[in-house]
Specification:
Blueprint: H1 2-14, E1 38-45, E2 48-55, H2 61-70, E3 86-93, E4 99-100, E5 103-104, E6 110-117, H3 123-133, E7 141-148, E8 151-159, H4 161-164
Parallel strand pairs: 6-7
Antiparallel strand pairs: 1-2, 3-6, 4-5, 7-8
Helix pairs in contact: 2-3
Length: 165
Amino acid sequence: MKALLTLLAMLAVTACGIAPTDVQDRGNAPTIRIPPPSKTIYLIKDGGLSLEPADVEDDTVASLLGALFQASTQPLGDRDTALRGFTYQGIKDSLNPVRRDEIKLPRTSTLTVVIRGEGTLTRLGKAQIVCTAQQDAAYEEVKIVRLEQNRPSRSEGQFTCGELK
């Protein structure tokens, strides 16, 4: 019985009507080119915040903030920025809990944005930074710290986008 089943299986495979062929080259495999993610940053238009598109290197808050400060070096047409004269230095993310003396500290959701520059950082400038960063819903608050030459760094405050709009 086993031999009969094996013979029937072989006949079924060879009797399907498809003749074997050699491998044929049909050209390159189909590929697509993915552009960098497009996100939005907050610029100023008609005296208030305006959400504007920005091309960024990758899908991170750091890249988005880099694009925000880079915009202050470019012509913006009918838009403006309150961040001229300031440079973006980086972020400190407190989402990952820190260990101290083998005790895990509570997890917070504050993003610290570090900037450098002279002059006054206006409320509208702070709003540009905070609202741009808070597009990532993981951050409840944004703290802005300014680095100064020959002086200790100082806090510009800790904010939410809603309180600055």
